């Protein structure tokens, strides 16, 4: 009888420890990506750089329009249009490339910080906050802290 009680006690302890371990491991985290971006200095700097490039492109168009109006012959206007179109295409491609590079850099850094939080919090997955209806763990502020501390 003593052995049976000891076995039942050990089984009970094992069950309690197993349940406690399950409570601390796993789960789903969620993140508000827009909030992280808004509070991430590198993202704000990237937005400023992209916006500056867009303004530069707009100013280019304004300058070219003024030059076009100053031309007096149809042949000069046609040649000017062709040259400007090529120049504009190159500038638009450079803008698109810069924007893409900055977005990718910011996304990769945010993802790396989120992965660190995932490991630290013993989470199974991290999803966008709009996917969660009930439950989950909000890790947005933790990711922002990681990014601001420069840990990636």
Report what the structure shows.
With 152 residues, the protein is mostly helical. Helix 3 (41-70) runs antiparallel to helix 4 and helix 4 (74-120) crosses helix 5 (140-149). It is rod-shaped. The protein has helices at 2-24, 33-38, 41-70, 74-120, 140-149, and strands at residues 28-31, 125-128, 137-138. It is built from five helices and three strands.
Write the layout of secondary structure elements.
Elements: H1 2-24, E1 28-31, H2 33-38, H3 41-70, H4 74-120, E2 125-128, E3 137-138, H5 140-149
Parallel strand pairs: 1-2, 1-3
List keywords for this structure.
disordered N terminus; mainly alpha; 3-stranded parallel beta sheet; 152 residues
User: Could you state the order of secondary-structure elements as H and E?
Assistant: HEHHHEEH
Mean pLDDT: 86
Low-confidence region ranges: 3-24
Please report the total strand number as a whole number: 3
Q: What is the spatial order of strands in the main beta sheet?
A: 2-1-3
The gross shape turns out to be: rod-shaped
Helix content: over 70%
Total helices: the number is 5
Strand content range: 5-15%
Radius of gyration: 29 Å
Task: State the secondary-structure class.
Answer: mainly alpha
Which quaternary structure do these chains form?
single chain
Biggest pleated sheet:
3 strands, parallel
Distance between the termini: 57 Å
């Amino acid at each position: 009888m003593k052995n049976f009680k000891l076995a039942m006690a050990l089984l009970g302890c094992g069950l309690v420890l197993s349940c406690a371990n399950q409570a601390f491991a796993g789960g789903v985290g969620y993140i508000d990506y827009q909030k992280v971006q808004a509070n991430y200095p590198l993202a704000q700097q990237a937005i400023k750089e992209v916006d500056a490039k867009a303004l530069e492109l707009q100013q280019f168009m304004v300058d070219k329009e003024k030059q076009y109006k100053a031309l007096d012959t149809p042949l000069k206007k046609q040649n000017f249009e062709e040259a400007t179109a090529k120049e504009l295409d190159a500038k638009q491609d450079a803008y698109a490339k810069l924007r893409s590079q900055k977005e990718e850099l910011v996304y990769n850094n945010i993802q790396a910080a989120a992965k660190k939080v995932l490991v630290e919090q013993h989470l199974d997955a991290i999803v966008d906050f709009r996917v969660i209806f009930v439950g989950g763990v909000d890790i947005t502020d933790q990711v922002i802290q990681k990014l601001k501390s420069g840990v990636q």
